[in-house]
Amino acid sequence: MTIRQFAIGTLLAGALALGACEGLPVPGGAGAALDIPEVEPGQLSEATMKDVTRILSSDAFEGRAPGTPGEEKTIALMIERFKAAGLQPGNGESWVQEVPLVEITGKDYAPLTITGKGAPLSFDFRKDWVGVTYREEAATSLSDSELVFVGYGINAPEKGWNDYAGLDVKGKTVVILVNDPDWQTQNLEGPFNGKAMTYYGRWTYKYEEAARQGAAGALIVHQTAPAAYGWNVVESSWTGPQAYAQRGENAPPLTQMNGWLTEDAARKLLKSAGQDLDALTKAAQAKGFKAVPLGMKLSTRFASDVRSFTSHNIIGILPGSEKPDEYVLHTAHWDHLGRCSPAPDGDDICNGAVDNATGTAALVALAEAHAKAGPARRSLVFLAVTAEESGLLGATYYAQNPVYPLAQTVGGVNMDAFQVAGPARDVTAVGLGKSQLDIFLETALKADGRTVTPDPKPENGYYYRSDHFAFAKLGVPMLYIDGGEDLIEGGREAGARVAADYTENRYHGPKDEFDEAWDWSGVMADLQLYYRLGRMMAMSTSWPTWNEGDEFRAIREESCKASDKGC
Question: What's the predicted TM-score (pTM) here?
Fold first, then answer.
């Protein structure tokens, strides 16, 4: 589970005043209207939520790490419960999709050496820089790779922005700034949504774009404020075993090495090249910025241990009655961390009860409720994905190898860690303001008499850090709804205490365990919201898309043009 994000509710205030049965105005839709049917509440089972959560988070499942006996037990349980709920196997005659994974562990790192204009520089691994390869190769070596500063490393045709314009970086190493050019803006206005991070600001995008441009290496300059985390997070996350989905045929290109530089190391490098980080940053924030060759060369080498294994996504489907070849997704990750650093009492099983046994149980409870209500117009897909904790690997693999074509996938909802501290007046949501699914959400909230809390930190870009993102980046509109902060008992102060207590004492630790004393009323209210969202999408005739100017709109449009079915 990723850190929670609050939603941008101000974009949608006007929608609340409109009826759920009428066509609603669509943001970015130039006056178009969405068909949003009215749906009855679902018959949701609290007993199912409790039972499945309790079993999945028991010590017998050993923390549900991919590739362990805990995975085998999880698959068996989910197939049993999906069958009992009334679903059909979601991958032909199979309930699972094999997910080939590779684990790459870098070792024997040489220093990062810089030669050229100034005195030679040598940067130590972990202390000054970190780097990995995504290639399944035993050795990685960069020798005298020319360094080029490419600003924020963004190529966004829809925004008229290209930091690589007129530049050939084949065989070179690019130095990149983290976040978007307008991240310091105090509002949500700007070429990249002001302080609200877009996908172009995420390190994942920057490495992908560098690879598309033909770069041999990519180094992001770490700065705590725009990254939203300290160097300690980078150092711990980018060392040791790194898991990736195995690459199939016609896979996107890869650099030889991706990594990070500390701010101090970057300043030293740029100073040696006769440049200044602050001046370059200011220049890079202006449209039309031209990349700066640094006249320096980089060299390093390291070895890698490579291990391959197979995990599984679990898939069930409730076929539609009128449009069975149009699909609505419900996703949650079944995996957790397995055995981990022990608590003071010696407990070393990270049970993952909240994160994400609750979300996995929700797939079963929703499947039961939809089956009881009868087939919807469109097919409902229930997808429990693997290896979220390793970097959204199961979701990414499905999105790149979809059982059901993405152009025929209407949209979906993602569930990751339900709030078990009682009912709230509001919900938090990730990704409001991005797509026409906003109107579905506001309609469902109105039906349940609830509200949305605005996002206090849109600059952190949490939309890009959970399983829904794997589908969004390939064009499928997705929502991720989280528990509210404004608790009925105790208000926002109590909600903040609950969130802080979980983060400090249980998140990704051995004490995220099932508790019979949990208050499930808030969980069931949130689950009803998910039910309404899924049912409305499945009963609708509309194809919601991304709002005008969103970074995923063009991807969706291309996907739709290439298909003679669906959107």
Answer: 0.79
